[in-house]
Automatic annotation (TrEMBL):
One of its GO terms (molecular function) is DNA-binding transcription factor activity. Residues 14-74 form the HTH tetR-type domain. Keywords: DNA-binding. SUPFAM superfamilies: Homeodomain-like, Tetracyclin repressor-like, C-terminal domain. This is TetR family transcriptional regulator. Residues 37-56 bind DNA. InterPro entries: Homeodomain-like_sf (IPR009057), HTH-type_TetR-like_transc_reg (IPR050109), HTH_TetR (IPR001647), Tet_transcr_reg_TetR-rel_C_sf (IPR036271).
């Protein structure tokens, strides 16, 4: 008689997988992907190391999944900010400010998502989500052009530049080598973003 997995077994497997993801997420939040060692994750999740590989093909596969989870949360927050009231320039400023402030409140996770050297599989996910951010910004810039609050320009090029600019501006403050007092100073200093000026600089 062929073995048939029971609902209880499926639930236990799902719970174990979720614990693995949650514990990996916590490891990354505490010390970046470099600190997320399989043995440590297994200990925190209360499973054997072999159990991790029954749920994920490889360490890189697990990290890519955690990266997707963490970054999608940030993309969703940017989308929410861009859906608020106000003209496109104001909404872009709100989204960028929120992105930066959330990054500075969780510097290790933000560093891991933005700049930490990672495996190729995770880097592929990083590029996908940069495109996701750029797509959101491109839509907002096009709306701003239509509204007349942003000058006519190549919206796709400007959105790509915008993603690169904010990531680059945060690398220093988020770096693990940056003293904690400096990161706190960045967090308590108001963020000022001039979207119209930036967009004007990027016009054809």
């Amino acid at each position: 008689m062929a073995y048939r997995e029971t609902e209880k077994m499926r639930q236990r497997k799902a719970e174990a997988r979720q614990r693995i993801v949650d514990c990996t997420f916590q490891c990354v939040m505490d010390g970046g992907f470099r600190s997320a060692r399989i043995n440590r994750i297994a200990d925190l999740a209360g499973v054997a190391t072999g159990t991790i590989y029954r749920h994920f093909e490889s360490r890189e596969d697990l990290f890519a999944g955690v990266f997707r989870l963490a970054t999608q949360r940030e993309v969703d927050k940017v989308a929410e900010a861009l859906a608020t009231e106000g003209n496109a320039a104001a909404r872009l400023e709100t989204a960028l400010r929120q992105f930066a402030e959330r990054a500075l409140r969780g510097p290790m996770m933000a560093w891991s998502l933005i700049a930490e050297p990672v495996d190729p599989k995770v880097e592929e996910e990083r590029l996908k989500y940069r495109k996701a951010y750029a797509s959101l910004f491109e839509t907002a810039i096009r709306e701003g052009i239509s509204e007349g609050c942003l000058p006519d320009q190549d919206a796709r090029q400007s959105s790509t530049c915008l993603v690169g600019a904010i990531a680059e501006s945060l690398v220093g403050p988020l770096s693990p080598t940056q003293p904690a007092r400096i990161r706190r100073q960045h967090l308590t200093t108001p963020m000022h973003w001039s979207i119209p000026s930036f967009a004007f600089a990027c016009r054809d």
